[in-house]
Amino acid sequence: MQGTRLSPISFIVLGFLSWAGESTPYRLKQLVAQSVGNFWTLQHAQLYTEPERLAKAGYLTEQRERGGRRRKLYAITDKGRQALEEWRAEPTDAILELRAPALLKLFFGADPAVLAPIQIEAHRRKLAEYEQIRDTMPEDVPAGPRLALDAGIDAERNQIAWWEAVMVSPDGHRSRAPAS
What we know:
Distance between the termini: 49 Å
Number of helices: 7
Largest sheet: 3 strands, antiparallel
CATH topology of the largest domain: Arc Repressor Mutant, subunit A
CATH superfamily of the largest domain: Winged helix-like DNA-binding domain superfamily/Winged helix DNA-binding domain
Shape: elongated
Order of helices and strands: HEHHEEHHHH
CATH architecture of the largest domain: Orthogonal Bundle
Helix content: 55-70%
Number of strands: 3
CATH class of the largest domain: Mainly Alpha
Structural class: mainly alpha
Strand content: 5-15%
Number of domains: 2
């Protein structure tokens, strides 16, 4: 499979398998839900199809359990490690893609006074979740996940401040000007 295109999902799979050693797609789904799923949206079905595709291209090995449920177990190969290392080393100028349903509604005329309180509460809950993760994170967690978590905490704080700034009072005036 010369020229197999590697996508962000490919690198999520390769990255987790480089840490976990061997894993099933179901375990990959659990790992994603507890970590990168907080900032990278993907369809869970991709965590079942992508490992198989990567195995066919030589980036992973695939074994089937001999007994029981006969689950597929995947492990990263040297080719997969090399691709992951090259990807990590390559800088990127891609920026955050903001896909927020509330902003879409706001864009098309939804009332900020209705949206803002709900958004503020939702972002406060997510902030509390991230802070709980940070406060209970084992000391041996590498710097990368810690830095990504810090970015999530900062983003939630910024979203709370932004929604507070655009909240409109009952008389139709903004409670304060949005930060620029």
